[in-house]
Specification:
Elements lengths: L8 H7 L5 H11 L6 H16 L5 E2 L3 H6 L14 H9 L4 E4 L11 E4 L3 E4 H19 L9 H5 L8 H9 L11 H11 L2 E6 L5 H18 L7 E5 L2 H15 L6 H6 L4 E3 H5 L20 E4 L7 H10 L5 E6 L12 H9 L6 H11 L16 E4 L10 H11 L2 H10 L5 E3 L7 H16 L5 H8 L2 E5 L8 H16 L12 E4 L13 E6 L5 E6 L5 E4 L7 E3 L2 E3 H4 L4 E7 L10 H8 L2 E8 L2 H9 L8 H5 L2
Parallel strand pairs: 2-3, 5-9, 5-10, 6-7, 6-8, 8-9, 11-20, 12-18, 12-19, 19-20
Antiparallel strand pairs: 1-4, 3-4, 13-14, 13-17, 14-15, 15-16
Helix pairs in contact: 1-3, 2-3, 6-14, 8-10, 8-16, 9-10, 17-23, 19-21
Length: 635
């Protein structure tokens, strides 16, 4: 494209409805400063903004057309766009674009940043990436609270750390050490004792929560045995729902452990949202805790890290005090955060797929008896990331386990063949219902949801509701959550004898859709409407102590019904049965990460309401997240 003779390609693209109003406004702002290439500068800025809305933290210059096409209607086409070399030439000549290379850092005041790999950033997302990368690298090169020197000194020329024997004694209370095969849970727990940063990843039921509980108990027991102050531990998750599930899981597991009373007392069993942990300030996007006023904590454990976006991770790392341990738990094959970034995937990518450092291999052999592949070229992150491989919830040869594995591998042929010709225990496919999902769902599941309204104990009703949930790929359309919820609401009002205009009735499941710090309800929290002892309808939600609390209906923040939820909203939840509805038409949101996340919400059964073609589209497509974080982590 001749740049000087180019049409106003920005306005041509904007006219297609591809860009959001915010993208367009940012583009016009840059056009005023864009000089000879105002239209191209405007389009580059708008496309970088659009990329963030799609979950990317940056825009590779060779992917501009792909990002714009994500929002393009089926019958429209984009005008001819510059190639990557032309984009780089235009951007490099603009004073409002900071150049970042290995030798030069980006200008913090620049609205756009172009890195050496041809990735264009909105300035603040570039700095978020570098902030996260720098903080995580520093953690791996700094000493852990119980260590006398740096990681390099301890696990390099100085040999095994002096704490190795004490760590073995602490872990022996929870693990059978010295087996022929590596016990990855024991290895993960030891990593938590030995490293300031630990990342435990694995699929559903692989024991991430149990492992971290044993790790924390061993950490407390070791501190007590050494006569040290017991570490202060905080647990967090990105949503209220995920925090509640983590709390419930920990309480159940702690109850079955034989522990020193002091250790039991110090073990945390209540998790908060990350926003609560960091301290929300009304009317501000900043948190109360930051580098100048860090958290008063020695260990922070964050569950469901795949849901944590890049800006929130940057703010968490900023608020951690020097010397504090950070333990991250998550499934790297699940959907990434709704907002920009895919931090867990980037850390796992930086760890690589090889072995650990020779020094870490020696420590693992000494403490756990496990022989793990040593690699002299392993990155520092290889020693920090542990993947749990054995699912205690899904038998690898069972129906749900096999289905999840085939989806994860992207093997659509094997999956469709198995669904058509093999018995997959706990898995059913309803192809006919895919054409009219609302009608089929109301017919089959109204009785289950209606029974919730006849229960007298809100805690039991909320527990009962976890037996079944409808999960959808989309919010709107014939198979979307809004449509399906409306169908259930109509049927349930009729069942309860409530007028069609009345929004409230006993048994209505609620999903909170915004953070509200006055009521301490947060986006993703699930509640139920039931009468109190006086017959007055109230909204009931789980509380931090494992019980329930009530709220007047008039005080509820923004909410919707929760009979059907988008798969994104279901992250951090588990249900006995998941009914998964996929659209019959093409939908760009469909991908194997979406379907894998939906399937792994189920403990026992999955019902797929989908056609073979929609299943194939979902399994064969992988969701991409453009990011430079993995490269930045490796320096």
């Amino acid at each position: 494209m001749n740049m000087k003779a180019s049409r106003n390609v920005f306005e041509e693209v904007a006219a297609l409805g591809v860009l959001r109003p915010l993208d367009v406004e940012l583009g016009y702002c840059m056009a005023e400063m864009g000089g000879d290439h105002a239209a191209l500068m405007a389009l580059a800025t708008a496309a970088a903004s659009l990329a963030v809305s799609q979950g990317h933290s940056c825009l590779p210059l060779d992917q501009v057309e792909a990002v714009l096409a994500e929002s393009l209607s089926a019958h429209a086409s984009l005008p001819a766009l510059p190639d990557a070399a032309t984009w780089r030439q235009v951007l490099s000549g603009c004073p409002w674009v900071s150049q970042s290379t290995g030798e030069a850092a980006a200008d913090h005041a620049a609205p756009l940043v172009l890195d050496a790999q041809g990735r264009l950033y909105l300035g603040r997302y570039f700095h978020y990436e570098r902030q996260v990368a720098q903080a995580l690298r520093q953690r791996l090169t700094s000493s852990a609270p119980v260590e006398a020197g740096t990681q390099h000194e301890l696990f390099g020329s100085a040999g095994l750390p002096p704490q190795a024997k004490a760590w073995r004694q602490a872990l022996a209370a929870f693990f059978t050490l010295g087996g022929e095969q590596p016990d990855w849970q024991a290895i993960a727990a030891l990593t938590g004792l030995a490293s300031p940063l630990t990342v435990i990843t694995g699929g559903p039921g692989t024991g991430k929560t149990t492992t971290v509980l044993w790790m924390l108990a061993a950490l407390l027991a070791d501190a007590r045995a050494q006569g040290q102050l017991l570490p202060r531990i905080r647990l967090a998750a990105p949503t209220g729902k995920a925090a509640a599930r983590l709390s419930e899981s920990l309480r159940a597991r702690v109850a079955g452990l034989t522990l020193d009373p002091a250790v039991r007392e110090a073990l945390p069993v209540s998790a908060s949202t990350l926003h609560r942990l960091l301290g929300v300030r009304r009317g501000s996007t900043r948190f109360r805790h930051h580098a100048g006023y860090p958290l008063d904590v020695d260990v922070v454990v964050v569950d469901e890290v795949s849901m944590v976006d890049l800006p929130l991770m940057a703010k968490l790392l900023d608020a951690l005090p020097d010397g504090a341990r950070l333990v991250l738990l998550g499934d790297r094959d699940q959907l990434a955060s709704v907002e920009a970034g895919n931090v867990l995937a980037a850390i796992c990518a930086a760890a690589g797929e090889g072995g650990v450092s020779p020094a870490r291999a020696a420590l693992l052999r000494e403490v756990t008896g496990a022989t793990v592949t040593a690699d002299t070229n392993a990155s520092a992150f290889a020693d920090a990331v542990v993947e749990l491989r054995h699912s205690h919830r899904f038998n690898a040869e069972g129906g749900l386990g096999r289905l999840a594995a085939m989806i994860r591998a992207g093997d659509a042929d094997a999956c469709l063949h198995a669904l058509a010709h093999e018995p997959l225990a706990g898995v059913a496919v309803d192809r006919a219902a895919a054409m009219h999902p609302a009608q089929a769902l109301v017919r089959d599941h109204t009785a289950f949801f209606a029974a919730l309204g006849r229960m007298h104990d809100p805690a039991q009703a909320l527990q009962q509701a976890l037996q079944l949930r409808v999960l959808t790929a989309l919010r709107g359309g014939p198979s979307g959550a809004s449509t399906l919820n409306a169908a259930f609401e109509h049927a349930l009002r009729r069942e309860a004898g409530v007028a069609a205009s009345e929004p409230w009735y006993a048994g209505r499941l609620l999903l909170v859709t915004e953070n509200d710090y006055g009521t301490e309800l947060f986006n993703g929290d699930i509640g139920i409407v039931l009468p109190d002892d006086g017959g007055h309808l109230l909204a009931w939600f789980p509380d931090d102590a494992g019980g329930v609390r009530s709220l007047p209906l008039q005080a509820l923040p923004a909410h919707e019904s929760a009979y059907a939820m988008t798969i994104h909203k279901s992250q951090g939840s588990e249900f006995d049965e998941a009914v998964i509805v996929l659209p019959t038409d093409e939908a760009r949101v469909l991908g194997r990460e979406l379907l894998y996340t939906a399937v792994t919400r189920a403990r026992e059964r999955v019902r797929l309401i989908a056609t073979d073609s929609s299943l194939r589209r979902a399994i064969e497509r992988s969701t991409r997240r453009f990011s430079g974080l993995a490269d930045a982590l490796l320096g």
